[in-house]
Design a protein that fits this description.
Blueprint: E1 2-9, E2 21-28, H1 33-37, E3 47-49, E4 56-57, E5 62-69, E6 74-79, E7 83-89, H2 94-103, E8 128-129, E9 132-133, E10 138-145, E11 150-155, E12 176-186, H3 198-203, H4 210-224, E13 232-236, E14 242-244, H5 245-254, E15 260-262, E16 267-270, H6 272-278, E17 285-286, E18 289-291, E19 298-301, H7 307-325, E20 334-335
Parallel strand pairs: 2-5, 3-5, 4-20
Antiparallel strand pairs: 1-2, 6-7, 7-12, 8-9, 10-11, 10-12, 13-19, 14-16, 15-16, 17-18, 18-19
Bound molecules: flavin-adenine dinucleotide (FAD).
Flavin-adenine dinucleotide binds next to strand 3, strand 8, strand 12 and strand 13.
Length: 336
């Protein structure tokens, strides 16, 4: 079914809670609907895909059409001895899918519990948390191309997943609408507890069962991240910068406590939250916006903020980090 909403408020449709409007929103629940939405001569002139709006900052009225997938089916496609392939439509809530996998005793998604958003958005920035990434479980992605008006399927390798990146943020940006994603989940126990406090939290719950891991991840996340219903935000506003090994080592010799993660032979990753904190900005507030007091990577809307105010704060944070460390930090959030 296709539903058209005209002059629609966006406040409830973005986790920052920014009060903008869109000229129109088209919701669809069947992938075939896209063939009529984008029928030649009839297609929207300017469009953008809106999932749950948890990684989008609206800075002005959206003068175009937001395309919103709403299909919520989850199906088992193939069963093998050790693993199973499932397919979920783009409109499924990511965390509902993780819960479904845990209930069905399937391993692979549990560390990604409670990441807000839709299944359709998960491949776009290759969502990740607690030592796991969506790319570890994605088998294939199905999408509609607005270029040739055809439905396509690409495998994991073709998605060119990287840290918060994929082909959907590169070559296919602006002409692919993901309609469903297939995942490969394991039937045998594969706990991945190497990250942060996870091991301790899981042990305190009695050991590495799927249910305990999911509960531990949910508990840690809820204690660290502000609830978007209370304080508007988009999770990590900035990506962790990846720098050359020599830059990382030079900074490490200056700042002994600085977290530094190897990425490859020649590159390493810095923690943007640590840099912002050390620049003295954790808890910084100006007008309706601020840097969260417990998690410096998160910019928050204290109520009534405009997208422009968030951008001004982001620019200030970036300039302070650049001045202190000589490091550029880039937004992870999609700015419209
Ligand atoms: C409190 C909080 C915590 C977070 N924690 C994490 C975390 O731990 N790890 C992490 O990786 N992210 C995290 N995020 C970011 C966010 O959860 C992810 O980016 C998520 O994938 C966004 O899903 P969404 O449906 O809300 O996408 P949206 O915000 O609606 O869209 C995000 C981008 O994906 C595109 N898109 C969405 N759906 C589709 C589709 N079907 N086809 C093509 N393009 C599409 C949009 O056009 C946009 O460019 C967090 C956000 C919040 C608010």
């Amino acid at each position: 079914m296709i539903t058209l909403l005209k002059n629609h408020p966006l406040k409830e449709l973005n986790s920052f809670g920014v009060d903008e409007q869109a000229d129109s929103i088209i919701c669809f629940d069947k992938k075939e609907d896209l063939n009529s939405i984008f029928a030649e001569g009839n297609e929207p002139e300017k469009w953008y895909v809106l999932g749950g709006g948890n990684n989008i900052l609206f800075t002005q009225r959206f003068a175009g059409t937001l395309i919103k997938p709403t299909g919520k089916a989850i199906n088992i496609k193939v069963q093998f001895e050790d693993y199973i392939i499932i397919e979920a439509e783009a409109g499924v809530e990511w965390d509902d899918l993780v819960e479904w996998s845990v209930e069905h005793n399937l391993w692979g998604m549990e560390n990604l519990s409670l990441i807000p958003g839709s299944v359709g958005a998960a491949p776009v920035q290759n969502i990740g948390a607690y030592g796991a990434e969506a790319k570890d479980v994605i088998e294939r992605v199905h999408y509609f191309s607005t270029k040739d008006r055809k439905h396509h399927t690409i495998g994991n390798a073709e998605c060119r997943f990287a840290y918060r990146d994929s082909i959907f943020k590169q070559e296919l940006r602006g002409n692919a609408i993901i309609t469903s994603v297939e995942f490969r989940l394991s039937k045998s126990s594969q706990p991945n507890l190497g990250y942060g406090d996870l091991q301790r939290e899981v042990e305190s719950r009695g050991g590495a069962t799927l249910k305990n891991i999911r509960e531990a991840v949910c508990a840690i996340r809820s204690s660290k991240l502000p609830d978007t219903k209370v304080l508007g935000n988009a999770g990590s506003f900035f990506k962790n910068p990846i720098v050359g090994k020599e830059v990382g080592e030079r900074l490490k010799s200056e700042y002994e406590n600085m977290p530094l993660y190897p990425v490859s032979e020649s590159k390493c990753k810095l923690a943007a939250g640590w840099l912002i904190d050390q620049a003295g900005l954790k808890g910084y507030r100006t007008g309706n916006v601020g840097v969260h007091e417990r998690q410096a990577l998160v910019l928050v809307n204290y109520g009534g903020a405009t997208g422009g105010e968030v951008i001004a704060l982001s620019d200030y944070v970036r300039s302070q980090v650049k001045e202190k460390f000589g490091i550029a930090i880039d937004p992870e959030v999609n700015i419209l």
